[in-house]
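Field reference: sequence -> structure
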Amino acid sequence: MKKQRLNNLIRIASLVIIICIFTLRFTVSAKPAFDNEVPFQSYTYWVDSYGNQLVNSKAMYKVKEVINVNSLGTNVFIQLSDMCTDSEGYVYLVDSDAKEITVINSEHKLESRFNSLTNKNGESIALTGPRGIYVSDKGNMYICDTAAGIVYVCNRNAQILSEIAAPDASILPDGFVYRPLKVAVDADGYTYVLSEGSYYGAMIYKPDGSFLGFYGANTVKSTVTQFLKNLWDKLTMTNEKRANSLKSIPYVFTDLCVDNGGFVYTVTGSTDYGKLQQGVLRRLSPIGVNIMQSDDVVFGDHVVGYDSVGSSRTQNLSNCVVDDDGFIYLSDTTSGNVYVYDGECNLLTAFGGGERSGTQNGVFTLPCAIDLYGEDIYVCDSSEMSVTIFTLTEYGKTVKSLQKETLAGNYSETMEGWKQVLSQDRNSQLAYVGIGKAALQEKDYETALEYSRLGLDRDTYERAYEQIRGDFLSRNFTLIFVLAVLLIATLIAVSVFIKKKHIRIKNQAVSFALGVNIHPFALFRQVREKKYGSIKIGLLFTVLFYISEVAKNDFGGFLFTSTSATNFNSIVILVRTAGAVLIWTVVNWMVSTLFGGLGKVREIFIVTTYSLTPMIIANVIYMICSNFMLGTEGAFLSVLMIVAEIYTVMLLCVGTMVTHDFSFGKFVVTALLSLLGLLLVVFLIAATIILVQQLYSFFSTIFYEIIYR
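Structure field:
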């Protein structure tokens, strides 16, 4: 008998393993046949509601030219800190250590170098510590002399036209020190100045040079944990402790720029909200409020990786510029990457890199500034003492032009263009989305459905599906109505027949397993008293629970799937379902035994698995209905799952109380302890896996060191 049970368990375990193998989803990403037009990597991210995946992409930019001391035929720069361009193609470099400004003409030849300015009286004013520069459309230079605490406004001949000095101390916050670092000017002549270390936002000066106030400061993000901590501090802190405590302050801006519409863009740089930089780019309204819908957007890389010493890398998106079409360009001083976004925060491309070891053209060691001239991107590297000029490839021109038209709502005009893009780069999510939108505008709903699904564009998919479903229902309403009536009539007839003939499920074990959902108190008591219930059926319910969860995620409607093809993992679902059942069974038995519980492992397992029936049924209904419903109709499915979860928990509570012969109070205590025990077991398993991985990495490193040395 024992041998037979062992064989049955082996068969069931084998079945579970086979199911796991066949339900694993493998994502195969075909590597596009890109040319060797550029020596650096170009990539983007496929963005979905449930994750982001890095994919290689065809290069949108290539190196046009590199400006350095060799090409200029001049002395070595000491420490470049900023750069800008003007409307005539001139390039202005700030050498902060040499305390001088270098002007390069439109042919990229040395025009002039100066370390002093001339005031209106003809006197020479030496630059003591310039850090930033901006050139207006009128050709005036705005030089931030950080050490002197002043912004000089001068012409190309280094003659001072005006000065932007510190406001009166009486209107500034206590302890504020005016150290201008970055400056930008809008078309109306308003000047925006970033002062080093200031978390009050940008300083605004009127065209006449008078101080207007602070503008657009970041806010401190508050979490539930931080709120509780602050509340506790208010209740328990003494005046002395309160005076010595550190106060959370907003992060300072690292750069700002102004678009042709007068809107100010700010970038914050690295934060400690996490290694991923979320919401660091903002577009500010005239009253300083972010209107870009960027607070939840991760800018830069979605996978930060590690540096050469194994530490997790923190991005520092410290430079920004925007072109006349609203495309935004960011540079990361940590990785050396350049990122190009459209006005809706879609990433067009990322390129450059270098990881602080720029060894070839197009990669960087320490980029300190980024600017534009026409469609060319200028990136200044303070470590390599160079300016790299990137120009659009033919592919890049096409993508940028098509995305501009797409954002403008001219979808139909972009259809053929996006198809050409896909023929060159199958990894372009923008192309799939663009074709889907164009097809929707042309009322080609089938094509819109296909491409919006490929491009993970749920909004376009829902609008196309709504039209297709509506057309189908209109054409087949009579047939659907007749079939629905026949189905209802058949169900009623079958129910009456079963009741009249007293038809019952002959298999007592199956009948018992299904009956606990209707009579949990009476039947769960028989699990302990009369040894009713079957481990085989319990294992079957566990397998069905796992399969239903996989099916809900894998075969559910596109609008309701909780995972994408790139982050789906059936092993995780197996651990979350079957693993949770087994751990709960063992932990609950251990805890309940300490409190005098009468239930055995077998009984707890049967009660737990039999309670899963509502979740299994709900998962199947969810999988089927989600393929026919719109996202706006998803409230029904949400309610369905909530009801199923509540009913499952109720069955589990009743079964556990009856099995252990516990009062409600004792049950609550043991249930909470069981949950804590379950979390502890999960933590120990995770810690063990991490430890094994680290040991493997340690010994593999030693092995390779011995082999190669």
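Note: DSSP finds 18 helices and 29 strands in the chain.
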